[in-house]
């Protein structure tokens, strides 16, 4: 759904969840709009269904985002939540919109959707991490971000991206980094407010005695609503000596980079 000669495209230069991808809307004329529609979803059996996504907020610009729901069989968009970067009191940077879908649990299906409206030809509207979940009281997800290359004998930065998609603040959780079965380091007593995400940074010396290694970031949080604690596994990392100097190695992923939530 759109007007004018515009639409939503994929881009790789921005990302809220560190996966090098986002949705990008650049209008051709002032007042142009476009919709991002999810598939039909049944909310039967859910306890606290929510529709959530990140948007890149640019305060002062005439850009608007409307989160809406189309329920069967009406084909009428019910706007649930809106934000206007020019008229609302907003903060710069990635923000998350969370929409409670509990009132639709008895519907045959719903179509969650996002309307993007712009009167700014120079500034795009950017979305990321769009999802519908049955939200738990406490729920952390994790993703490991390994360096593209490492240098023998030096400290290399490895990040674990932690996202709090639960309804409550997460307090006193721990993140651990493993190289194979060896514990590299532990960061404890961490706090992450509901709806927020953050980077936990580690230093890692790569053992290049073997051709591959396995990095894993593990989140330990006693209150987490998932039976399986979230962990971020980079799979097998293969050391590639592209320079031929035996010192600087490019890492090639040979496994699943992002763990399921």
Model description:
The structure is a single chain. The strands form 4 sheets. The chain has a 6-stranded antiparallel β-sheet, with no helix packed on it. The protein has a 5-stranded antiparallel β-sheet with strand order 1-2-9-4-7, with no helix packed on it. A hairpin with a 5-residue loop joins strand 5 and strand 6. It contains no helices and 18 strands. It has 261 residues and is an all-beta fold. It starts with 7 loop residues before the first strand and ends in an 8-residue tail after the last strand. The protein has strands at residues 8-11, 22-25, 32-37, 49-57, 63-71, 77-84, 93-100, 110-118, 125-134, 140-145, 149-151, 156-164, 170-179, 182-192, 197-204, 212-220, 231-240, 248-253.
Keywords:
disordered C terminus, 6-stranded antiparallel beta sheet, 0% helix
Give the total of beta strands. Answer: 18
Shape: globular
Secondary-structure-based class equals mainly beta
What is the strand content?
A: over 45%
Mean pLDDT: 84
User: Helical stretch count?
Assistant: 0
Q: Which strand order do you get reading across the main beta sheet?
A: 11-18-17-16-13-14
Helix share, percent: under 10%
Low-confidence stretches: 253-261
Largest sheet: 6 strands, antiparallel
The first-to-last residue Cα distance is 30 Å
Radius of gyration: 21 Å
Give the ordered list of helices and strands: EEEEEEEEEEEEEEEEEE
